[in-house]
Amino acid sequence: MNTTLAHKTEDDQSDTAAKRTALVARACSLIEASETPPSLHDLAAKVGMSPFHFHRLFKAETGLTPKAYSSAYRARKLREGLSSPDASITRAIYDSGFNSNSRFYEASGQLLGMHPRNYRAGGAGAVIRFAVGQCSLGAILVAQSQRGICAILLGDDPDCLVRDLQDQFPKAELIGRDNEFEQLIAQVVGFIEAPSIGLRLPLDIQGTAFQERVWRALREIPPGTTISYTEIAERIGSAKAVRAVAQACATNPIAVAIPCHRVVRRNGDLAGYRWGVDRKRELLRREARA
Predict the structure, then answer these.
(1) pLDDT per residue over 167-198, tens digit each?
(2) What CA–CA distance (Å, rounded) separates 129 from 85?
């Protein structure tokens, strides 16, 4: 292949990728601007594609299906509305795209992990069981809501980890030293010590629509491999949002199960890690060895 033809091929590929990104960005804008979640057929028609090809393209670019993206966006709007002291729950319901109270309350448990009044009250009424233990990386705290694991925290001081959990759920009922729950933390510790055994636990993931896209992409990185922040941004269809990707990694509340430790700088150097770069280095070393 001559140089001119090679350059033309690269330009064509670049144009195609840019068009795909622009098309998905337009679809995301349509979802966010709609009062109620648009159907797959309506979205596909508005961007001039068949539902099948649009669904496949959207998921390839964002890591989410259009329905999952819509749910994540509504969840973020709902949390923003409930966090505002001046807005009522009814206002938050309609602002987040629900056209009736009944439909909202059917979905609120999945979107928030708890009743909306409890969410607004900082987790009041929610029961979160947790246990603190030790592993070769230091202290570890594992917490579980009614829906699944909501926090895996690592550090040097167990008391600091407990305070961190209290800050996340200031009004929830936190239950520690549960003998049955000790078995769960043993599973997490076992995975940290031997990554090859895998970790299959239900997760209670709560974040903004963007954070959930990043965290979903992180969970698709195979153990023993790394990826750059730039590549994650490209995978979720937000190539220019590299800093926002790094921030989503930094605020990840579920260590190891959402493997933000597998993300590095473009040149392969280790970047920051919420629980310390030394722990990140050791986790990667263990996964590579396994």
Answers:
(1) 887 777 888 866 667 778 888 888 888 877 77
(2) 28
Query: How much of the chain is helix, strand and coil, in % rounded to 5?
Result: 55, 10, 30
Q: Active-site residue numbers?
A: 260
In the three-class reduction of DSSP (H, G, I as helix; E, B as strand; rest coil), residue 241 is classed as: coil
Query: What is the CATH code of the structural domain delimited by 1-120?
Result: 1.10.10.60
Geometric angle at alpha carbon 283, from 280 and 286, rounded to 5°? 150
| Reported CATH class of domain 127-197 | alpha beta
Q: Structure tokens of 227?
A: 């990826």
What dotted CATH number matches 209-289?
A: 1.10.10.10
- End-to-end distance of the chain based on CA atoms, in angstroms? 41
- The model's pTM is 0.61
How far is the CA of 170 from the CAs of 114, 125, 131, 145, 174, in angstroms?
Answer: 14, 11, 17, 14, 9
| Per-residue model confidence as pLDDT tens digits over 133-147 | 888 999 999 998 887
